[in-house]
Design goal:
alpha+beta; 34% helix; three-stranded antiparallel β-sheet; disordered N terminus
Length: 364
């Protein structure tokens, strides 16, 4: 029951922040940079304002009681520029140094559009044998974003590394960034299935099972760590993270993304309440490594580099650029260690399967 209450609390908070429900009167919020960090991303730095007599709103952050003079007139001890407002429920007038604004009608300024580049389309001309006749991009990436803890994510870190969920796919059928993202979207579908089951009265374990069944439909089991994906999915149920947060979180933890920078995605009256991190995500860990170490060798990337946090520059390498790379100057040790670790894991799994099959044969 405690888990269920926590889930509902998170979902209700996410719904209010995302404005999925329209209250009788527009909700008012305020924000303040209390720790001097330049933003208001901590939970205590944003608050819902309370209604006062006369239809105004009062921010509870650093709110103080007003002081009455000899004739009963109230003044704000923080300064005469801050009005004294009486709560709608009555009581002593109070004031706050922070203003309130409606969460609708532009009260929360959103960065638009959200970073979401599908990558280079596979729409070029081909010959009779299916060979590409147009421009070829090698190790092409996709520009995406994830959001650290802030107001819009119900103060959950949607960029958190949750382990290697999406496998590198060396020698497998997983060959394009579109396929990798499809895997991540499959987990998103699993999460929705788990919530539907949970909302219908299923236990947490039953909901996880429903989500797992949705995940594995249409997905090659060798391309994803199912158990980690289920934990990842259930973790996301308790947050305000969206589908792109989930996609990037999975690829980031699998070592397939390069972080370009951080920008403010949402603000209240000029105070940032939600940041976002722009990334270039690739179809393999090797693709990310070669892009990171190959770009500094190529003059064609001198002007653009990785682009900006809001507009990551994630194009692939041309055939000419790829041929110009000096691999002797690259440190591929990260990739080699990944191959070695994966090979040992595959050997152990293979040996266990063979032993189990033998034991079933000799002990029917």
């Amino acid at each position: 029951m405690r888990w269920r209450l926590s889930l509902w609390t998170a979902l209700l908070l996410a719904s209010s922040v995302a404005l999925t429900a329209a209250p009788a009167r527009a909700q008012q919020l305020c924000a303040a940079d209390l720790d001097g960090s330049g933003d208001a991303e901590a939970a205590r730095e944003t608050a819902q304002c309370s209604e006062t007599n006369g239809g105004s709103y009062l921010c509870p952050i650093q709110q103080v009681a007003c002081v009455a003079d000899a004739v009963g007139a109230y003044s704000c001890p923080l300064g005469s520029q801050y009005p004294c407002l009486t709560p709608a429920t009555g009581g002593t007038p109070s004031c706050s140094p922070h203003a309130c604004t409606s969460v609708t009608g532009g009260g929360i300024e959103e960065e638009d559009p959200v970073v979401d580049d599908p990558g280079a389309p596979n729409d070029g001309a081909v010959d009779a044998d299916g060979n590409c006749l147009g421009a070829i991009e090698i190790f092409a990436g996709r520009a995406v974003r994830c959001r650290p803890a802030g107001l819009k994510t119900t103060f959950s870190n949607c960029c958190k590394d949750r382990g290697e969920i999406v496998k590198d796919g060396m020698g497998s059928s997983i060959s394009s960034i579109g396929t990798k993202i499809a895997i991540a979207k499959g987990v998103w579908s699993g999460m929705k299935a788990a919530y539907t089951a949970f909302n219908a009265g299923a236990t947490a374990s039953e909901a996880a099972g429903a989500g797992a069944n949705a995940i594995i439909v249409g997905i090659d089991p060798t391309s994803i760590a199912i158990s980690l994906a289920i934990n990842f999915m259930m973790d996301f149920l308790l947050s305000g993270c969206d589908q792109q947060d989930m996609e990037v979180g999975m690829l980031l933890g699998s070592g397939m993304c390069h972080e370009v920078g951080t920008y403010c995605a949402s603000s209240i009256l000029g105070v940032c309440v939600q940041k976002a991190k722009g990334h270039c995500c690739f179809n393999t860990r090797l693709g990310r490594i070669i892009q990171e170490q190959g770009r500094p060798q190529l003059a064609s990337f001198n002007a653009m580099g990785w682009g900006t946090a809001k507009k990551p520059y994630c194009r692939g390498l041309t055939a000419e650029e790829f041929q110009a790379l000096d691999f002797s100057k690259m440190d591929l040790s990260e990739y080699y260690s990944d191959i070695e670790a994966r090979a040992q894991s595959d050997i152990q799994i293979d040996m266990k399967d063979r032993i189990d099959a033998y034991m079933e044969t000799v002990n029917p």
